[in-house]
# Entry
Amino acid sequence: MRCRTLFSAGIAVAGALLAAAPVEDTSVAAPDAAKFGPLYRVRKVDDGPSRATGMVSRGKFLYVLGDEMLWIYDTSTPEAPRLTGKTGKFPEGRQIALSGNVACIAARSHGLYLVDIADPAAPEQLARFDTVELATGVDAAGPVCFVAERQYGVECVDISDPEHPRFLSLIQTPEAQSVFYDSGRVFAGDWAAGRITILDVSHVRAPRQIAAHPLTGYGDGVAVRGDLCLASTGHHAKTGPKENRRNNGHSINLIDISNIRKPRTISSFPFPPFFSRGNDFWTVRFSGNTAVAADSHNGVFLVDISDPLQPKGAGQLQLPPVASPAGGTRPDAVSGVAAVDGVLYLSGVRTGLFLAEIPRLRREPERKSVPPVIPPPLPAKPVPGFFTYDAGGRVRGVAIHGDLAWVAAGSAGIHTVRLSEKGISPVAVLPVTEAYDVKYSDGLLYAAEGAAGVAVYRPDEAGRLTLLGRCQFGPLAQLIWKPEGSRFAVVSARTGVLYFLDVSDPARMKKVFQHRQIGLLYGDLLCDRLLGGRYIANNWHSGGLAWYDLSGEKPVLANRVVERLNTHADGLAALNGKLLMINHGRYVLLEPNQPGPSQEWKRYSAGERISGVPTVDGTIVALSHRADREVRLYDFSNPEAARPIPERRWKFPDVPGTVSFWRGRVVIPLSYQGLLLEKALP
# Structure
């Protein structure tokens, strides 16, 4: 799990989780000059942000993400940077890359921001692009931006017209955390897989994998110069005796890529053991013959790589102490680094922008790698066995009532279509800025519309929509659920909070309750059918199960099971009055508001390992696994002995959303492939 911090409201929950988990080492080793070189003093940049994450240097300017803004400094005098301009707002900004006069900001659940930096005194936001998943890492070259999106891989985005970015392609890797572009190749640091994945992006509409190479720890930051690749790692070691691996994965790996199809690790340089759930920032940069490696709370290590076969410690830095969730204090986490002549800039997640004067450091020359060329679009390919509707945008969700369906199609708005045995026919388009999700409930359509908040519409008999009200409450509304028969709707921004709105009067909607538990809401993890006439449930990614009672004037948290229970890939649904939970390859059937602990629950097998977000249609359950791009159907006629339906499983070229049903046929939101309708039942 990668999140910026543990929320203070969840400290008690965190304690319960950690008590059940192996004890982790959250202490930070004291500086060791004999091994890592001298400890350099850092000093804060006075007119900088109070909190900071990614940064990049180019020419005489430094670009820093902090306090949800982009800060630009003139570093002509490196030890005395001068703020020239700043702009925002960029919530969750994590990494930044530059291409020409455009800054590309990876901002987790907010996707990709593009900023005009032609005038350093007046940077200006140009656009925001809806990435398929959490935009974690970023690099850019020429007209293309490459965004690391964890289990969904690397998304290629056309930024040749930065006010109107366009999707090019998406290629899956195990868990891309950071990316680096070099002359037609992208190097992705894959997190839990502990590897780098090398992609051929010379044809950015059809990227392909060239090679995968193991690392000594969990993967993240990557840098390439010539035939040498530096890979930054953390958490637990992937090699060596198993009893010594815990917390020992921190290092940089030096990899020979002269044979790009057969990379070869030539050496590695380990850093002190450490573990913390959160603040997973492991970044590496070249500075002349020095590798600059940021290792979260461990600080920054300078490694002499003049002889790549024998790297040596050349210095270390630590940020000022901050409070630790485990008690006491520890150095703040270093989230970004940038080297110029004689100075290193480093950012602290909770303490802001710092610099240190280090004579050995040199400004890395601007990369001269050949940028990609965007070829003409590839011809559209039909999806066998399905009717397809092209909405002109990223189709994330669909709501069905009778023969009408409403399609949430991102920047292409909300489309009304009619379903029939002959296919999908357009009815109308409602042009909204962004449509992330839609639900039909009690005769109304509820829409999650990003920055515009939640909207409620009344459909007429033809499906055309009339706006009844709108509620803007801060975060991007990206997922919405509206239980039939309830006065409440639930909204998620794909962060760590569920928001409950009273929508009984659509013209006067208001937030009445919110809840956070350990874990992020990456996807559709809530069961919005009332169980027992009053309860709904949510799966918190790696944080357990929560039950909510919607029977009163306000929702209340009725029960929760705080365990490392499920991941974001597995969801919940109502089945015969019980809660169906997909759980580590099997499934569980729970009574309404059933408490834990989970070891007391009975697990059932479906005859094979199962995973995904479930949708129920009578005795048929569809499981949509977004990251694996699969939809599989199962027969639950016997709820305790489900069985696969082999003829109804599909592997798709794009990312499927939650499945719906129309007259027994599956209806699948399939991102830029459009909306799919199964042609015929087997």
About this structure: The CA atoms of residues 345 and 355 lie 4 Å apart. The chain is about 0% helix and 45% strand.
